[in-house]
Amino acid sequence: MDGSSVNDERPGKKLGPHVEKRLNATFVKKAPPGRHTDGGGLYLQVDVSGARRWILRVVVHGKRRDFGLGSANVISLADARDKSFEMRRLIAAGGNPKVRKREEEGRATTFAELAKQVHHRKFKDNKNNGKHIAQWINTLETYAFPTIGDLAVEDVNQDDIERVIDPIWTTKPETARRVLQRIKTVFDHACGRGLRTRGNPTTGMRGLMRKQDDQVKHFTAIEFMQIERLFHALKDSKDVGALALLFTLFTASRSGPVRAAVWSEIDPGLETWTIPAAKMKTKKEFIVPLSMPARDVLLRAKERRTSASDLIFPSPSKPKNMISENTMRKLLQTIFEGATVHGLRSTFRTWVTEIIRVDQDVAELCLAHAVGGKVERAYNRPELIDQRLMMLEKWGLWATGDLAPFSNGTDVDAYIRGKWMDPD
Predict the structure, then answer these.
(1) Considering the domain boundaries, does residue 214 fall inside one?
(2) Residues 318 and 363 placed together within one structural domain of the fold
(3) Where are the stretches annotated Disordered (predicted)?
(4) Are 188 and 315 in contact (CB under 8 A)?
């Protein structure tokens, strides 16, 4: 008996290419759930759901890897064989099929598709500042998608991006800069994932564009010499918006945490307000020492408290909801046209610089701004809370119109302790 006869009768796998087991087009359409081999490492994977896809199993650098070649409903058996052959040849030449696959994905993914993926990934755990989250993708939909939205990520070049931002570069300079930055973020992601082989097309574009003449616009703030007008206009009001606006003023806080504040964040003695990390822009818990004017606002708010909500400043029409961000703004603008609620923080900061002139780091901590080093890391320590309380008490005096201590040589700290802290 010759060698071939011995091999044919040997138990186990037959030698050779197993031609009789290769798939055919009819079987591909009707194959039951499971993994079916076509030979050469090519498999048809059929899920219980009926979904079917091509998989190539190969050895790369001594390790077995599986690479998806696409849906069997889109890619024919012949095309799957061609793809598997090309990939095996690439591996034999020492190439990396993962890189090749990413390049192909880059050619198959449009800018719009990737931008939406980046937007979701960037903000998926961020529940604060919903306006900014929506604005991020909205600006791309408005300005970028009509021009480059349908282009493959791999194919977009610098000329394409210039066509997006050039029309608004000088007419809407701030918007143009934001659009360019967000496009850059999308392509940073594309480069990081290997979806582009030519680098980020936005690189160096700022330097190539013509000069923009706009100036940075700040939140419109009230002059600190006029701030007592706000207090006197609202001091007798029982309106929830007025109380929230005064509380924002006296605590130098952002409007978001104020609108979302609940009674459980206020200590029983009304001495501190502990803002949870989730409500802070810095994502760190922050303790606000409450000055006497701020406590007075809370006492007035407490008179309105009902069992319907734990919110300190609930919506009058829907007590389980916080007041809208427009409530305080509209009220403020009936007193100071064009002023913004956020601008109150700028008013406070300017007042510290012009009137207090010292303790600039403490002022930054009152605003929950980072100041660096040990001071920043310790801003919730008792001694710094005491310093912030004294500054906010001084601010309370100024904002309520009690200006005498600031102009007649009085020791303002002693005045505050005698008036509020040491009643005896």
Answers:
(1) no
(2) yes
(3) 1-20
(4) no
Q: Give me the pLDDT at residue 280, please.
A: 87
CA separation for the pair 33, 11 (Å, rounded): 28
Of 94-103, 135-144, 385-394, least confident by mean pLDDT is 94-103
Compute the distance between CA of residue 333 and CA of residue 343 in angstroms, rounded to an integer.
12
Q: At residue 287, what is the residue type?
A: I
Q: Are 249 and 360 in the same domain?
A: yes
* Surface-to-core class of residue 65, CB atoms within 10 Å of its CB (0-12 exposed, 13-18 middle, 19+ buried): middle
Q: The tokens of 341 are what? A: 């609620």
Identify the domain boundary among 175, 208, 241: 208
pTM: 0.52
pLDDT in tens, 49-70: 787 888 888 887 677 877 777 7
Q: Which domain holds residue 10?
A: 3-95
The closest alpha carbon to 143, from 118, 159, 167, belongs to 167
In the chain, what are the helix, strand and coil shares in percent, each to the nearest 5? 55, 10, 35
Report pLDDT digits (tens) over 147-181: 999 888 888 889 899 999 988 888 888 888 889 99
Residue 73 sits in a domain whose CATH number is: 3.30.160.390
Do the domain assignments include residue 101?
no
Number of domains forming the structure of the chain: 3
- Pairwise CA distance, residues 250 & 291, whole Å: 7
